[in-house]
Each structure stands twice: as C-alpha cells, then as structure tokens.
Design a protein that fits this description.
alpha+beta, seven-stranded mixed beta sheet, globular, 16 helices
Length: 554
C-alpha cells in the first residue's frame, strides 16, 4: 500500500458565511485541490521550508449556513477523506446561534494506557468522538485554542527520545547540546514533531478537519514564563540556544498556527505570506522567516499575532498577551501601545451583540491570586525598597506571577475600555474574556462600576485540555476563592501602595481541575455556557461529561 503524501491536515481554519481556508502539510512538492459538493473548488501549489511542504487553499462563494462536503486531491490523487468516509464543514449562519468550544494547555502525548493514567483523557479527543455521532449542524462553529498548543520546554517522552537520538547523531542545532535545553525543542524541524504528534492522531485530526480553529500562542511555545519581566529577558538572552529557539518557534508558529487565523482577504494582502510563497527557493523562505522571527522578538510592533473574527453578531478579538508585552520596568504593559491601540480600534469600531476577548492569560484571576500579583508587581518595582524588589522579582518568576493583574497599567486600560463599551445605546449584551493558562477552570462575573443597564461581563477560564495540575497547587487555587484569603491579600497589596480598583468580581462556578473544554453559545442577546470534562469510559473511549450549565445573560 502506497503511503499518503499528506503528512498533516487538512486543518479547516477560517470559515465565514461564504468562504473558508484549508491548511495542509505534504511530504513532497505538488498541487493540492479542494472540491466541494456546492460546485466550488480551489487549488494551490505547495511551498517548501526545511524539507516540509505546505499549502493553504481558500474557497469563496460557498453557500451560507450549510453543511458543505469536500474532498482533497494532491496531484490528482485523493488524499482526504479516507475511503468510505465523508468530510464536511459548516458555513456560518449570520443570524443564528454560534457555539465556541475553547480551552488551552494541551499536551500532545499519545493515548497509551500509561499516558492516559499519567495525564488523563484528552478533551479534544472527547469532543471529536462526540462529533462523530452528530449532524454537522450540531458541531461548534469554532474551536478556540487559547495557548500552549505545544510544549517546547516539556515535550513527551517519545519526543525526548527522538531529540536525544538527533543530538547523538550530530544533527540539528549545536547550540542546545550540553545545555539546560538539551532535551527541549530548538529548531523548526523539532517543532514540526510537536505539531505532528499533537494534531495527527485520531479523533483530533478529523476534529480539526471539520471545525474551524482560531489559535494564539503562550509561553510554552518558547519556554515557561516567556516574557515575564525585563530580568527574565536579560537572563534568557544569555543562553546560547535562545536565538535558535526564537527562530524555530516563530517560524513554525507562523506556518502551523498564524496563517490559518487570517481570512482569505487578509491572506491576499499579507506581504510576508506573498514573499514566502513567491521566494525562488526554500533557502530564501527560511531566511525570510528567520529574519522576521528575530525582528518580531526584538521589536514586537514590527509584526502582529493578534487577530479578530466576526461570527454573525459576535466579534472575537484574539489578543497576543505574550510577544507584544512592554517589559520596561518604568512602563510595564501586557500589550505595548501599538498593540493596545489596535485592540481598542477593533473593539470600538463595530457594535456586536457579544464581544469576546481571547487572551491566553485570564484578565480576571481568582480574587486572592489577583491581589497577590498586584502586590508582587509593586514590590518587584521597588515599593518596599531595592532588597525587597529583588525578592519580589524572584517570586514573580518562581510563582508565575505574570498575568494581567501583574501589569497594573494594562489591567486598568482594559477596565477603562470595558466601561466605554458598556455605556450608550450600542452597548453589547455581553463582554467576556475567554482564557486558559492557569490549569484550573472557573466562571467569574464582574462589575465595572457602571450604573444602569450594562452588559453581562464574565471571565471564562478553561484550562487544561490535557495537562492536569498537581495536587498541592490545586489546594492553593481552592483557597484563592475564599473571601477571607482575598481580603488578606488585598490588604497586603494596599501595604505595597496598590490603589483601589472599581472592578469587582467573584467566582460563580469552579474552580475545576480536570481536563476539559467549555462551550459558549451566543444567540440574539443571550449567552449560555456548558462546562465539559473528559474521562475514559468503560469501553475505553475518551468522552465528555457535562459538569455545569449556566445562563450568562437573561
């Protein structure tokens, strides 16, 4: 039997009311064609990087609110779906309900008994197994992957074995050998292994070939605590392997994740995409992406990972809360001025019924942890003197105190924007932050000090898809919702000269710690939420069980 040239994909990435994009990786150059039962087809030649061959195919003029069956050929050979199966996508219904499945933090380890025992069932596998028995009209309209799609600094045992074999053979970058990153991912080739492992196994592969996905990066795309502070940057830049890691991480992220976040219209206008596709050789493409990677790491406002999508009357603004940080101790910001101006413009330029901010890191932490991070930022910045500042900086790195609460200016800026959006006749029915990162899940409702009828404002945090938190840290998170603990840490923050905030919130549900996924549905002025957790049933199948259902708006 001849092996398929299709290495990974198809990934259905952007799907609108009448258009869609499909992403592919092949093992050889060629031309890929997508043909639908709606009489619409499109094709594209592959372009090569580091011995891999990629293509994106954009389709337009698709029928709205329809299940569209498709097949894929490569140089006239059918490569998807498998014989006897069908593949389909569902275009957006601009007037109907929209369901978003979302979460973060997913290890790509296999589904062996040992792996299932060690890190549990995979929520995306559970979602894929459920969809296999559903009509396409019942599927989510989008899958939001909110960070840590891959773990460059903590790969699976199987990948570590491959890394060691590669190092011993003399292949790959020399910079990591004999260092603290020897068993970590370093270059483009090694990053490709992570994506193949994470997205290539069923039923996740078919899930990604059926439901459009939106993705944003987080720290483990490079390394734990990436861009926590200026001192973290100063330290990491002394490592001999760091520049190779940056090039590998951003080049692969651009190929595997970022390009698919763009609409067909945005792809047609993207200058780097055009340069890469039209470059005369793979070496030229590799140079273009390496230069871009180093530049965007050094000067974040020379590129943009943030993006937005409209799903009928719901707008999603996905915020890069890692690469675009300003780490200047005198002007720390979760997103720099250029990026924040873009976020404000996207939020204020339209009047959606529901406005969703996607951020890998929660805007609203569990209350006690929020005050702890406020205290830490103030102390690390010198409110208790230089010696305490050094201790505060060490605690910031050791305890991962680097969420929105640890960037006081950005937290206040988001609160101001929320108040602006909440006033007037054009205010949305809801404003929500969808996040992950913290390996626990919760629902928190917030008040921003705006009188009268205001939008429902919620922090929805779902983490992990598959990477459970250890027991001692679970206990800390359970304490973080206790009001006496929150009051004590608020007083501690006040002692470090942190001023009061007009924003108040409490966890209405959670925290939960099992692997899972949240499903948010917006319809008219209403929004409702389902919390699902993954487990292995008696038949050995990874499945989902509903933990909670909530109406978020009247």
């Amino acid at each position: 039997m001849t092996l398929s040239p299709l290495v990974l994909g198809p990934l259905v990435r952007y799907v609108g009311a009448h258009d869609a994009t499909f992403w592919f990786e092949f093992d050889t150059p060629g031309t890929v064609r997508v043909t639908t039962d709606a009489g619409v087809h499109g094709e594209a030649p592959t372009w090569g990087i580091h011995g891999h061959h990629y293509a994106l195919v954009a389709l337009t003029d698709l029928p709205g609110n329809s299940a569209v069956t498709y097949d894929v050929t490569f140089d006239a050979r059918v490569v998807w779906p498998e014989a006897g199966k069908t593949a389909s996508v569902h275009t957006v219904d601009r007037d109907g309900p929209v369901t978003f499945a979302f979460g973060s933090c997913r290890r790509g380890d296999n589904y062996s008994d040992e792996s299932l025992q060690r890190i549990g069932a995979d929520a995306l596998a559970g979602l894929g197994n459920r969809m296999a028995n559903q009509d396409p009209g019942e599927w989510p309209q989008a899958l939001l992957l909110l960070g840590d799609q891959v773990y460059a600094d903590d790969p699976s045992p199987e990948i570590i074995e491959r890394l060691r074999a590669r190092r011993e053979s003399g292949a790959g970058p020399k910079s990591a050998r004999g260092t603290d990153a020897e068993d970590e991912i370093c270059d483009f080739e090694e990053y490709s292994w992570l994506y193949h492992e994470s997205w290539g196994a069923e039923p996740v592969r078919t899930l990604l070939a059926s439901v459009p996905s939106c993705m944003i990066l987080d720290d483990h795309d490079l390394r734990d605590d990436w861009n926590s502070s200026a001192s973290w940057r100063a330290d990491i830049e002394t490592r001999p392997w760091w520049k190779d890691r940056v090039v590998g991480a951003f080049s692969s992220y651009w190929v595997y994740q970022h390009l698919g976040n763009l609409s067909p219209n945005e792809l047609a206008k993207d200058e780097l995409y055009e340069k890469v596709r039209s470059a005369p050789s793979d070496a030229d493409r590799e140079r273009l992406l390496a230069e871009f990677s180093l530049r965007v790491d050094e000067v974040p406002d020379t590129g943009r990972w943030s993006f937005y999508r409209d799903f009928g009357d719901t707008r999603l603004i996905m915020i890069d809360s890692r690469c675009s940080r300003n780490l200047d101790p005198k002007n720390r910001a979760m997103v720099d001025d250029v990026e924040w101006a873009w976020v404000r413009e996207r939020a204020l330029e339209s009047s959606p019924r529901h406005l969703l901010f996607g951020s890998s890191l929660p805007y609203l932490m569990l209350p006690a942890l929020h005050h702890l991070e406020q205290w830490n930022e103030a102390v690390a910045q010198g409110s208790w003197g230089k010696l305490a500042g050094k201790v505060g900086e060490k605690l910031r790195i050791e305890l991962d105190l680097e969420h929105w609460a640890a960037f006081g200016k950005s937290f206040a800026d988001m609160a101001t924007l929320t108040r602006e959006l909440s006033r007037g006749d054009a205010a949305p029915a809801s404003i929500m932050w969808l996040s992950g990162d913290v390996h626990c899940s919760y629902v928190a409702r917030a008040e921003f000090g705006v009188g009268g009828e205001v939008p429902a404002t919620y922090q929805l945090t779902m983490s992990p898809f598959r990477n459970p938190l250890n027991l001692p840290i679970r206990a800390v998170n359970r304490l973080a919702i206790k009001k006496p603990v929150a009051r004590g840490l608020r007083r501690l923050a006040s002692a470090a000269k942190v001023g009061p905030s007009e924003v108040t919130w409490d966890a209405e549900a959670g925290p939960w710690f099992d692997n899972g996924v949240m499903l948010l549905t917006t319809e008219g002025n209403s929004a409702r939420l389902r919390v699902e957790h993954a487990h292995v049933d008696e038949a050995g199948t990874q499945t989902l069980t509903t933990t909670a259902k909530m109406a978020l708006t009247p």
